[in-house]
């Protein structure tokens, strides 16, 4: 049986092969509804299947978007990857996800692999490209959007949340409970001082403490972003002589480690220790007690990132405001801070 071609579809639908292409690719030119229906009916009747490989070779692009996350084990990155996948599906695209594990060589490995597959673009989550990765991106002239990472260069394209403002909200809320001060569980020595969301969370905590007249000296503690290392840090911090009355954690995953350490040490939360996090991952509502945290609109951020990575005109000629999209943060009050029943966002 002869292979069905685009010419066959065009003849049956009574139109041109160009119009058939517009229907299959959903553009770049509009097609009248009646004509579209005829083309779709012809495709179904003939059992036509587009040759995506040939299309990619002709256009130098595929229906794929590459996405690199620093740690796929963390709930925030898993939820963000899911949101990007959903947003891409709405645009007829699929997502390839790579886990760099915060290692430059793995990031470069995935960049080369994805670009070799002729992805439509790349989304880098919560980390700007390393020097080696940036060189690869420039060599391939790749489309890149930073997601959850504030750009340093003015021509970078990025989607972020208000990390500083959100951390201020959480810290202020803890202080309003009457605590003498709020300690902060931040990042590590390797955490970038500029652009990194965790660095911005620490900055928001610092601003809230200073505006209330409280010192931050000796109250910032380093911990990797995951619950396991944060648990070990919290065991030492909470069993020491200078146990803080409240802790703001730069990530929810760190807060989960703090809650586990407090339970093991029989420290009542929130009676003896108030805790707040940042991210509002789904698990935050299931901890005991439920975690007060800062919410970021991941579905909206994901849609914006996908739109930016696919929109040539906006990327090339868009204004700084259009190329840097910032979404507001909101405080989700639950019981770990000392409040009663959980409430909606505090804007």
The CATH architecture classification of the largest domain is 3-Layer(aba) Sandwich
CATH evolutionary superfamily of the largest domain: Response regulator
Number of helices: 14
**Main sheet makeup:** 6 strands, parallel
CATH C-level category of the largest domain: Alpha Beta
- The level of helicity is 40-55%
Q: What is the ordering of alpha helices and beta strands?
A: HHHHEHEHEHEEHEHEHEHEEHHHEEE
The Rg value, from CA coordinates, equals: 24 Å
Approximate strand percentage: 5-15%
What structural category do the secondary elements indicate? alpha/beta
Mean pLDDT: 88
**Tally of domains:** 3
- Give the overall shape: elongated
Widest beta sheet: strand line-up: 2-1-3-4-5-11
The end-to-end span amounts to: 64 Å
Total strands? 13
Unreliable spans are none
Task: Examine the coordinates and then state which fold CATH places here, giving the name of the CATH topology of the largest domain.
Answer: Rossmann fold
Structure description:
- This protein is an alpha/beta fold.
- It has helices spanning 6-13, 17-25, 33-46, 52-59, 75-90, 104-116, 131-140, 163-176, 197-211, 227-238, 252-264, 298-310, 312-317, 320-323, and strands at residues 64-69, 94-99, 121-125, 144-147, 158-161, 183-185, 220-221, 246-249, 274-276, 293-295, 324-327, 330-332, 345-346.
- The termini are far apart.
- It has 14 helices and 13 strands.
- Helix 11 (252-264) links the parallel strand 8 and strand 9 (274-276).
- The model has no long low-confidence stretch (mean pLDDT 88).
- The strands form 3 sheets. Strands 2-1-3-4-5-11 form a 6-stranded parallel β-sheet, with helices on both faces.
- Helix 1 (6-13) packs across helix 2 (17-25), helix 1 (6-13) crosses helix 3 and helix 10 packs across helix 11.
- Helices cover 45% and strands 14% of the residues.
- The chain folds into 3 domains: 4-49, 434 Repressor (Amino-terminal Domain), CATH 1.10.260; 62-159 and 296-327, Rossmann fold (3-Layer(aba) Sandwich); 161-295, Response regulator (Rossmann fold), CATH 3.40.50.2300.
- The longest helix is centred in the first third of the chain and has 16 residues, at 75-90.
- The radius of gyration is 24 Å and the shape is elongated.
């Amino acid at each position: 049986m002869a292979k069905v071609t685009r010419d066959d579809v065009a003849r049956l639908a009574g139109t041109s092969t160009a119009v058939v292409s517009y229907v299959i690719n959903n553009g770049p030119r509009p097609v009248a509804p009646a004509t579209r229906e005829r083309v779709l009916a012809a495709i179904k009747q003939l059992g036509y299947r587009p040759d995506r490989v040939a299309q990619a070779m002709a256009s130098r692009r595929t229906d794929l978007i590459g996405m690199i996350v620093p740690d796929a084990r963390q709930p925030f990155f898993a939820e963000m990857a899911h949101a990007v996948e959903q947003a891409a599906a709405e645009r007829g695209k699929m997502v390839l996800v790579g886990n760099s594990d915060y290692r430059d060589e793995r990031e470069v490995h995935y960049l080369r692999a994805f670009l070799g597959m002729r992805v439509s673009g790349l989304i880098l989550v919560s980390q700007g490209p390393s020097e080696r990765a940036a060189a690869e991106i420039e060599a391939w002239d790749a489309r890149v959007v930073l997601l959850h990472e504030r750009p340093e260069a003015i021509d970078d394209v990025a989607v972020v949340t208000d990390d500083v403002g959100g951390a201020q909200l959480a810290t202020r809320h803890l202080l309003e409970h009457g605590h003498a001060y709020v300690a902060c569980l931040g990042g590590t020595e390797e955490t970038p001082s500029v652009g990194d969301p965790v660095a911005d969370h620490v900055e928001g905590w610092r601003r809230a403490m200073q505006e209330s007249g409280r010192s931050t000296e000796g109250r910032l503690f380093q911990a990797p972003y995951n619950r396991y290392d944060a648990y070990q840090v919290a065991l030492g911090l909470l069993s020491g002589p200078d146990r803080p009355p409240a802790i703001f954690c730069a990530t929810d995953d760190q807060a989960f480690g703090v809650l586990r350490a407090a339970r093991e040490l029989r420290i009542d939360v929130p009676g003896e220790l108030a805790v707040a996090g940042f991210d509002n991952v789904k698990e935050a509502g299931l901890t005991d007690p439920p975690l007060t945290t800062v919410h970021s609109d991941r579905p909206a951020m994901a849609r914006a990132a996908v739109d930016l990575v696919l929109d040539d005109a906006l990327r090339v000629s868009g204004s700084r405001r259009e190329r840097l999209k910032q979404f507001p943060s909101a405080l989700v009050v639950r019981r770990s801070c000392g409040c009663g029943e959980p409430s909606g966002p505090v804007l």
